[in-house]
Amino acid sequence: MDWYESSGAHVLAARSTVTYHELCTRAASPGAVLEADSRQIDLDVPRTGVSLYRFVLHEDVNEDVDLDLCPLAPHFDALKRILLAYSLRNMRVGYVQGHADVVSFLMGLTSSTADDKAGQYDDEQVFWIYAVLMERIFPSDFFARMPKLQGFHVDMDVFARLIQSKVPALASVLAPDDLHVLSSLLASKWFMTVWVGEIPLPALTAYWHYMLVGNVETSSVAHFIMALSLLELATDAILASVVRILSVHRENDGDASFGYKVALEHAAHVDANTISSLLRFNKYMLTDAVVESMRADVRSNPHFIEQEVCALHGITHFDRSQLEHLQVEFQFLVATSHHPSSSSLSTTATTTTLAMGPTSVARRSQTIAADGINKDVLRQILVR
């Protein structure tokens, strides 16, 4: 399956100022990769035996059986090389725990199926396809180390809101707290793994193909379409479990945990044709623009603003009041940059904001929908 070309990974590789092989060389130098990333990669790679057997060697193995790891030695080396190189390329993210299995899946899907070439793949192509996933499909702070997984937590809240509006049959019977717990549990299980290990391989391949090769307007929100589709498929069974619980306990207790288990069980048996049809149909009418608007609304929550301020406080010499002022300034610039007369507004944004009193600044920070601070841009300003 040629995801390297169809996903645009080849374009990302061509535009990069540093090649994959250069990153591999640098990553091999002592201290080049953060110790926390290097240590976690060393722990995770040997644990991917089952994934490598299933995805790369195409052998169905039992997780409870001791595996012969000798045939996996070259694949362990390639996997570690890819993960170290990417943690060096994207220091803001580094290594995401559990993504050794995600990359193992990509190694298998880009490998040859011919008997004489089984298990052969181009690890450079795997690297760039993984880069597309991390840098073009998900928001830049989705897997970020600081603030930790900020984008993921934003999408977790967006997912809860989408369940309320798109799966009303389920939302109407679950208490708000249960609905929030259910969406959080499923997002943690599904979004972080990108469904690797959570659904059958044919269905997983169909989902990734849609995500990497599909319509540009929906590929970046494919995880929401997928999650809502799987949850709706399991809704009848979840509702039945709620009825059973209520008949026994006479109270709304345990709905989230039961719903979570039922949803995972249904997902584990979904077929590729069903997934392909649901994704193409996109009955929820989700687009990148719709979801970005919801994300902006979530990011304006003081909780997320506080997280960004705390994170920046740890890497700059500014005090909290200065950072809060910068936060408002960036929000204002982001908002006015989309205004029809943004060219004139942006030149006066600094003067306007600095002239505002504390009360006005606070009021503006509550009314402007922010995309969040781009710390890469901010760092360039701070070092001047």
TrEMBL record:
<protein>
    <recommendedName>
        <fullName>Rab-GAP TBC domain-containing protein</fullName>
    </recommendedName>
</protein>
<feature type="domain" description="Rab-GAP TBC">
    <location>
        <begin position="1"/>
        <end position="215"/>
    </location>
</feature>
<dbReference type="InterPro" id="IPR035969">
    <property type="entry name" value="Rab-GAP_TBC_sf"/>
</dbReference>
<dbReference type="InterPro" id="IPR000195">
    <property type="entry name" value="Rab-GAP-TBC_dom"/>
</dbReference>
<dbReference type="Pfam" id="PF00566">
    <property type="entry name" value="RabGAP-TBC"/>
</dbReference>
<dbReference type="GO" id="GO:0005096">
    <property type="term" value="F:GTPase activator activity"/>
</dbReference>
